[in-house]
């Protein structure tokens, strides 16, 4: 099984979040035992902002077992279409395209998405299986 990892899960672990850190780390460990962990460009970039350089980022992601898998054209198209539907339905710019890229990537490249943002992804990517360690 392939698990796509959302940014919030990685932030929970890297910052040792008092509320979600332990559950997110346990979920990552469980998912890694069942298969592979992947993160797309958008997640990688958001996480990179918390590191001073590329080397510690790559080392820490490797220690967690998270592999970089870039967004391909079909995933980008899926993300763009979902974002357009969201905007057409009156969605605000509060949700940025990166959230949709993460969902489109997970839908195409993974069996499920590990995230605490289950409501958003269930609403905009109905076919995507969601794992939420906070449930």
Task: Explain what you see.
This protein has 135 residues and is α/β, with parallel strands linked by helices. It has a single domain, classed as 5'-nuclease (Rossmann fold). 57% of the residues lie in helices and 12% in strands. The chain has seven helices and five strands. The chain has a five-stranded parallel sheet, sandwiched between helices. Helix 1 crosses helix 2. The mean pLDDT is 93.
Q: Structural class, from secondary structure content?
A: alpha/beta
How helix-rich are the residues, as a percent range?
55-70%
Mean pLDDT: 93
Instruction: Count all strands and give the number.
Output: 5
Order of helices and strands: EHHEHHEHHEHE
What features would you highlight for this structure?
135 residues, alpha/beta, Rossmann fold, five-stranded parallel β-sheet
Write the layout of secondary structure elements.
Layout (H helix, E strand, L loop, with lengths): L1 E4 L1 H8 L6 H14 L1 E4 L1 H8 L5 H11 L1 E3 L4 H16 L8 H13 L2 E3 L3 H7 L5 E2 L4
Parallel strand pairs: 1-2, 1-4, 2-3, 4-5
State the gist of this model.
The chain is α/β, with parallel strands linked by helices. It has helices at 7-14, 21-34, 41-48, 54-64, 73-88, 97-109, 118-124, and strands at 2-5, 36-39, 66-68, 112-114, 130-131.
